[in-house]
Write a structure and sequence with these properties.
This protein is mainly alpha-helical and 99 residues long. Helices cover 89% and strands 0% of the residues. The chain is rod-shaped.
Length: 99
Amino acid sequence: MTAINELLELTRRVQALAESGDWAGAAELERERRPLVERFLAERPQADALREAAPIIRQVVEMDRALVARVTEQRRAILGEASTDMTAARVARAYALAP
């Protein structure tokens, strides 16, 4: 399997893990994925190889965009929950200290 095909497969697996909520697993695979990108670029592919790889690269970029959007959405949700929790804790503390 070529580096670009391995990259596509790992990207699919990262996306699947993220969609299932396994952020730790997705992060672990992302650490494996990054060297594949670097290896592909370090090989300095010729024009023919780049033409062949272009559709796969487009797929990977689109999956990455979707993943970034999902991470951003998840981050907002977590921050919202944390804010609600902190507000509830402040209210409970104020209530407990009230005369």
